[in-house]
Amino acid sequence: MLGAALGIRPVDVRITRDPQGKPHLSTDQQVSTPGGDLHFNISHTRGLVAVALAGRPVGIDVETPAEILDRDQVARLVFAPESLAALDALTTDDARNALFYRFWTLGEAFIKATGLGLAQGLDSFAFTATGPVQLIRVAPSWGPAARWRFGIF
User: Is 0.70 topped by the overall pTM?
Assistant: First the structure.
């Protein structure tokens, strides 16, 4: 995909990492798109791969949902208070598991888009628990929450 976007052979694509470890195109291979420079992100898990290309920083995450024995403990360690309240309001394990993965994958995609990774913390922002995905809280340094776009596929 990157080779095609750059108009070069895939073997000639050069990927480097920024100081936080986020992969990006080598600066001499950067091309402009209608939205700005070409950005990409990739995620993979058992049997699934997802790739995103965009004209601005982009993040993507894919997970194979499974039962997590310590799901609630993990949530309490990493999620925002708004996310925890939404999880606590649910009464079935299936619903809690589904919402956990919603918050987890959206959070992973967001911290990958910002380039800060886990150092940013999954508790530094919060998403809607139902309906269309929207940020309901984010640090002012990332601009208004409404400027961010998310999707679940």
Answer: yes
